[in-house]
Design a protein that fits this description.
With 685 residues, this protein is an alpha+beta fold. It folds into 5 domains: 60 residues, Helix Hairpins; 218 residues, D-amino Acid Aminotransferase, Chain A, domain 1; 76 residues, OB fold (Dihydrolipoamide Acetyltransferase, E2P) (Beta Barrel), CATH 2.40.50; 153 residues, DNA polymerase, domain 1, CATH 1.10.150.20; 87 residues, Rossmann fold, CATH 3.40.50. The protein has 26 helices and 24 strands. Strands 14, 15, 16, 17, 18, 19 and 20 form a 7-stranded antiparallel β-sheet that branches. Strands 2-13-10-3-9 form a 5-stranded mixed β-sheet. A hairpin with a 2-residue loop joins strand 4 and strand 5. The longest helix is centred in the N-terminal third of the chain and has 24 residues. The N and C termini lie far apart (91 Å). The protein binds 2-(butylsulfanyl)adenosine.
Length: 685
């Protein structure tokens, strides 16, 4: 039933309005205090809309504590100053277990107590401290901590925070009470807020704490109202009324009044239990919805708290046990490129050493060029570094306002910083690779292991351990040195008695007899696996032909795309690689000659041009077939062309062929020719 339409008289309206307010406040409590909502956001919005519309019709029933009145008041010119009745204290910090034990010692000696102290342990929330004044249960004033004695009056803003009740629930409310706690923004809401701001062309906030502080100190409360601010109560200021005996019970009372308190609050016996709590909270840290920069231990008994009192700015009855800071600022000293075992280049920022997340960090990976350019990190930049848990340190932001004027964007390296070989970055790929696979010191251990592996050159007895040893002892520098090793070079190295040395030299020698595909695979050309090596060998038949092939020629081979073609081309162009290959061949590596010497291929010297489309094969397949038989395929017809293969819908090439008197073949004739020769070739081979 639509409740609204059935209400006509002011008495009915007043009842419904009151019921709606109670219902809304019950759902606020379920959501913010219990973290256990019963209804969806849409259902909540419907209740809210109904209340608003009733209040519009019966304006005299609107009260200041109605949830519809959270955003009220105009834009202010500045915030008024508020004097705190009781100063808002700060907390002493402990960074080590020793600090915490010393705190416990001080507490016990001041209280003259031998027995274990009961503590209330809570998360240390990383937001903005506020003071809320409630009189007879009504929210009267909200203020910031300021210098601890004077804060700013942010009542209008505080009223917009849905987690803060405008009226406390329950009986026996104190005549006046100052409730202190933290306003903060949950991580997930922070991400969403920043996305919204950036979409609207505004600057995002650096972290949730800044976002909370910035949102709370808006002169226009309507803006604050749009920010996803939360509140957790954790302390008390001045109070006229009776209070419970302990901090733990105080927090429970707050919850009954409808004020959210932080999760994971525990009452603990003795300081050792506090240290265990600290470790538990570190483990939970990443699962918490909000930022937490430590935990707080408070002497639980409020009487003991009064006895202990405070010194200067901090109470003697509490201490903050801080987590190692996860974020810190530092300066980028240099940016260099590290070369991985597989030849991938990774930009790395060398940093002014800084203590973050519990360790000293002096470098951070920038992952790849795209990432580097996206973050636009430059030498000399001041950056925000983050290291959470065991995660590798990461640069999360650059402080652009302090960038040195001469700082230049980082250029992509053209040569490998380790070996000087060319660096290739393929279109559409993020990774940059050094093409000196065989010679690059960064890659060679892995390159040699690959070279020696069973499916490559199959050198028995040459595993990674031995390769590492030979490299360390400088017995070899690259794969070609293997074939010049003598027993004497090995004897005496760990694990190399004379028989072992002899066995290795023999197995190296016997690997010399191989096949072209194995050899090509062994070279470790990026993206060239066994199947590609087979295709290359089949197509080029001889190594020199492959080594001088252009990327365009390579692309015409079955299964070879532009990326592989570029890697193959670049690999064979690299002079280090060519030298090593030459040394390998000089050492006697060999394979059976191709089935037919190249000069005797049946279509050797014949020039073909293709026009129109063939039914039985693609243009590339036709080109492959001609090339396999030694023929050449060109693009344009000249008097030197021997055959023009004419498919359906031929272009102007057919006219030109006729004009020049060049022989033409239709699809049938072409197939006859290649199949006939191929059969002949196979029979011979
Ligand atoms: S109690 C007299 N409890 O940390 C004690 N403070 O570094 C007053 N804070 O100004 C504060 N979590 O803004 C208390 N569970 C917690 C807290 C907490 C965060 C803040 C508070 C305080 C600051 C001191």
């Amino acid at each position: 039933m639509n409740q609204e339409s059935s209400i006509i008289d002011p008495t009915g309206a007043a009842q419904r309005i009151s019921a709606l307010r109670q219902e809304i406040s019950r759902h606020d409590r379920l959501y913010y205090v219990e973290s256990n909502p019963e209804i969806t956001d849409e259902e909540y919005d419907r209740l809210f809309a109904e209340l608003r519309s009733l209040e519009q019709r019966f304006a005299h029933l609107v009260t200041a504590d109605s949830p519809t009145q959270r955003v009220a008041g105009a834009v202010q010119a500045s915030f008024a100053t508020v004097q705190h009745r009781i100063p808002m204290l700060s907390l002493d910090n402990a960074f080590t277990d020793q600090d915490v034990l010393a705190f416990d010692q001080r507490v016990r000696s001041r209280l003259g107590q031998q027995a274990a102290i009961v503590y209330c342990a809570e998360p240390k929330l990383d937001g903005v401290a506020v003071n809320l004044l409630y009189e007879s249960g009504n929210l009267i004033q909200g203020s910031t901590r300021g210098d601890g004695f004077h804060g700013e009056d942010i009542t209008a803003n505080v009223r917009t925070i849905a987690a803060i009740p405008l009226r406390l629930s329950g009986e026996d409310l104190p005549a006046a009470i100052e409730i202190r706690g933290e306003v903060l923004i949950f991580e997930r809401d922070f991400e969403r807020l920043n996305a919204q701001l950036e979409k609207a062309g505004q600057r995002g906030f650096v972290n949730p704490r800044n976002a909370a502080s910035g949102s709370l100190r808006q002169l226009n409360p309507a803006i604050t109202a749009q920010r996803p601010l939360r509140f957790f109560a954790y302390a008390i200021g001045a109070c006229q009324g009776t209070l419970p005996e302990t901090q733990f019970e105080l927090l429970q009372l707050y919850r009954r009044w409808g004020l959210p308190t932080a999760p994971q609050v525990e009452r603990l016996h003795g300081i050792e239990a506090c240290l265990a709590y600290y470790r538990r909270m570190i483990a939970l840290r990443d699962t918490m919805p909000f930022a937490m920069d430590g935990v707080v231990y408070k002497v639980d008994s409020l009487d003991s708290q009064r006895i202990l009192g405070a010194i200067s700015r901090a109470p003697r009855w509490a201490i903050a046990h801080k987590f190692a800071a996860e974020e810190a600022q530092t300066v980028v000293r240099n940016i260099w490129f590290s070369v991985g075992r597989s030849g991938t280049l990774t930009p790395v920022a060398q940093l002014e050493p800084v203590f973050v997340g519990g360790v000293t960090v002096s470098s951070a990976t920038l992952h790849n060029m795209d990432e580097l350019h996206r973050k636009d990190v430059r030498i000399g930049d001041r950056v925000v570094l983050r290291r959470a848990g065991d995660v590798i340190p990461e640069i999360v932001a650059v402080r652009l306002n302090t960038r040195p004027p001469q700082a230049e964007p980082i250029q992509e390296p053209k040569v490998c910083p380790v070996c000087g070989s060319a660096v290739i970055r393929l279109e559409g790929e993020v990774a940059m690779r050094c093409e000196g696979a065989l010679s690059c010191p960064a890659q060679r251990q892995r390159a040699i292991a690959h070279f020696a592996s069973r499916e490559a050159m199959h050198i028995d007895g040459l595993g990674e351990k031995r390769i590492q040893l030979l490299l360390e002892k400088k017995v070899i520098e690259d794969v070609s040195d293997l074939y010049y090793l003598r027993c004497e070079d090995l004897v005496g190295l760990p694990g190399f008695a004379r028989p072992a040395a002899r066995r290795l030299v023999e197995s190296i020698a016997s690997s010399k007899a191989t096949t072209l595909p194995r050899f090509l695979y062994a070279l470790g050309i990026p993206m060239v696996g066994k199947a590609t090596a087979e295709s290359l060998a089949e197509h080029f038949r001889e190594l020199p032909a492959l080594m001088s092939a252009t990327p365009t020629q390579l692309e015409h081979i079955r299964d070879i795309g532009p990326a592989v073609a570029r890697h193959i081309g670049a690999f064979f162009q690299e002079s280090h690689n060519r030298q090593i290959i030459q040394r390998l061949l000089d050492a006697g590596i060999h394979w059976p000659p191709p089935a037919l010497p190249i000069g005797t291929l049946p279509l050797h010297g014949k020039r073909f041009v293709l026009t129109g489309s063939l039914d039985s094969m693609t243009r590339r397949q036709a080109t492959d077939a001609i090339r396999r038989l030694g023929g050449d395929v060109g693009d344009s017809i000249s008097p030197k062309t021997d055959f023009v293969v004419v498919g359906s819908d031929p272009g102007s090439k057919l006219e030109r062929a006729k004009a020049l008197g060049v022989a033409t073949l239709d699809e049938h004739g072409f197939l006859d020719m290649v199949q006939h020769i191929h059969g002949h070739n196979m029979a011979e081979g």
